[in-house]
Automatic annotation (TrEMBL):
GO terms for biological process: phosphatidylinositol metabolic process; phosphatidylinositol-mediated signaling; release of sequestered calcium ion into cytosol. GO terms for molecular function: phosphatidylinositol-4,5-bisphosphate phospholipase C activity. PANTHER family: 1-PHOSPHATIDYLINOSITOL 4,5-BISPHOSPHATE PHOSPHODIESTERASE ETA-2 (PTHR10336:SF166), PHOSPHOINOSITIDE-SPECIFIC PHOSPHOLIPASE C FAMILY PROTEIN (PTHR10336). It comes from Hirundo rustica rustica. InterPro entries: PH-like_dom_sf (IPR011993), PH_domain (IPR001849), PI-PLC_fam (IPR001192). This is PH domain-containing protein. It holds the Pfam family PH_12. Residues 1-101 form the PH domain.
Length: 150
């Protein structure tokens, strides 16, 4: 995906979720261990070209269906991304919103954990159908999936 910045052209980066699905990471980065955004620090995920950074680019520069912004941290910093397809953007938006809901809603998280413990062979049910489809297509961004060892 392309990461947009203030006044310069975008940077091509490989974005993925860490093994615990608790952080978005990217590479290459000179920051190494600091190149991450914690899922629980995400305040909002917005579709399209709504952020201030996107407004600096001319209309038609990017397909709005491929654009999204992640607002995170106490100061609502934004990570503005352009994916290679609308499907990839939709997958990230849906997946991040799902993870945000799971982390911020402790009752829901506890309920899911109890269900997972009760029905261990169905651990993959909790991921959106889109994410399982992405795994089958071997799209080049890493998302870790829960699998049963039975």
């Amino acid at each position: 995906m392309i990461k947009l910045r203030g006044g310069s052209k975008g940077l091509v980066r490989f974005y993925y979720l860490d093994d615990h699905r608790s952080c978005i990471r990217w590479r290459p980065s000179r920051k190494n261990e600091k190149a991450k955004i914690s899922i629980d620090s995400i305040q909002e995920v917005c579709e399209g070209k709504q952020s201030e950074i996107f407004q600096r680019y001319a209309d038609g520069s990017f397909d709005p269906n491929c654009c999204f912004s992640i607002y995170y941290g106490d100061h609502m910093e934004s990570l503005d991304l352009v994916s290679s397809s609308a499907e990839e953007a939709r997958t990230w938006i849906t997946g991040l919103k799902y993870l945000m809901a799971g982390i911020s809603d402790e009752d829901s998280l506890s309920k899911r954990q109890r269900t997972r413990d009760q029905y261990p062979s169905c651990a993959a049910w909790e991921l959106p159908q889109q994410w399982r489809a992405v795994d089958k297509l071997r799209i080049p961004y890493r998302i870790c999936f829960a699998t049963s060892k039975h």
